[in-house]
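Translate sequence into structure tokens.
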Amino acid sequence: MTEDATVFISCGIFRAELEHLAGAGLFGHNVIFLDAALHVNFDKLQDRLTKTLEQARTSGTELKIIYGHCHPDMIEMLDRYGAKKLGAGNCIEAIAGKEQIAKLDAEAKSFFLTAGWVNNYENIFAAGEEDFGMDFSSMFSGYQRIIVFETGVIPIDEEKVREFSLFTGLPVERISITLDHFLELIRKI
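Result follows.
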């Protein structure tokens, strides 16, 4: 199967990373990006992902999904279209790796973010509040810190980091990582 016969459908949270990999000549596929805030509403995510799979599916097209397990029926949805998913439970695992997350979380209960998450948390929280009246301020009470994984691909809005820290009442630590793990997962789809 040629690269032209492969369509990737990705959560928008990965847009900058995939564009960076494409610019470096490491990823040259057709990608359809969906809004990162869809994961706060299972019905909207299922509707949008299913419609996109339906539109992208053509004879001979291989569908590859760059998402975590963001919907309880994710695997069943993808199976209906013969689509294959990235081998990660969520976007943080995709970028940093499950082992690194477990190690850091064992040190101190941590809430993990990528630069894309930091820069978009307001939109994601606003979608949850609009659809369900969610109050995200209470969800951080069990954590001791926030860890932001920095790849250097996305400039982090320092004001948003400060606001997020104030919003959660948690200190922010940063860890520099590469996109090697992410790229390896993509290649394995």
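Note: The longest strand covers residues 6-11.
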